[in-house]
Amino acid sequence: MSLFRWEDIDHRLVSLKQMNLAEEMRHQIRADKWRIQFESHGDLNRESLVLKMEQDRADEWARRAYEIYCEVWHTQGHAKSADFVRAVGARVVTRLVRARTEKVSREFTRFARGRFPFVLRDAKLNGFRLNMLRLESRWRRRLEIEAKECEHAERRERLASTRVSQSAIPPTETPQEHTLSEKRSPQKKPSLGPKKQDLSQYLDSAKLTQRQHDCMSLHFEYGLRLTEIANRLGIDRKTVEEHLALANAKLEKQTARGRHEKNFAKKKPGGLDM
Questions:
Q1: Which DSSP category does 116 fall into?
Q2: For residue 217, what are the CA distances in angstroms to 142, 198, 238, 256?
Q3: C-alpha torsion angle, residues 56, 131, 19, 66 (rounded to 10)
Q4: How confident is the model at residue 167 (pLDDT cuts 50, 70, 90)?
Q5: Which CATH fold would you assign to the domain 194-267?
């Protein structure tokens, strides 16, 4: 979800709607004052009723002002977010309640001058201000609750989108599965090509094991390096070195036996060349 910016709101549209709301609320407040004065003529508690009415109308004014911002934001194609709720609460609702508190307090002070003892005037005025502070606090809690709910909704939406994106990705093989798949379908080994020299007569008669024979043939007949031999046979380099050393020892033993037999044949009677 994109970040909320206060300047992204269509404030021109909001201002037009707020002007209509202000005219409607002032008309209702004047009508309420006339009604209270008519119904409580001669009642000393009449001013307290007027202050209570002002508090209720301020609450309604704040609610409808907040709804205007939500409607305009929705009209622009956006969804409410926690940042949006907190911004409107701080910039609109709180300021409106405070502005109504100051305006009503000034009007009541002017009206009560010379009509009420200052003690009674201050008591009524302080009571009204305290009630407006409570109203502001209730609005702050209400909007913070809504902001928290928006945060949880955004978190659920992110988790849902993450699950969808993960389900769209094909599963990958684990290292173990990758090894097993390679064993099931081994790669074709590259061709060795022709021999560089033929040592079959020596290797075949030396009684080498199959692995010793393979290592000797790949190294001396085909000219492969030890690392290449290890990769081709699927063993490590050290094992290749061991096979070569054992094979070489057998070849040297075979060569020594051949020389001994040849010398022995020369010493036998009739064995000398004439």
A1: S
A2: 86, 9, 17, 21
A3: -90
A4: low
A5: Arc Repressor Mutant, subunit A (1.10.10)
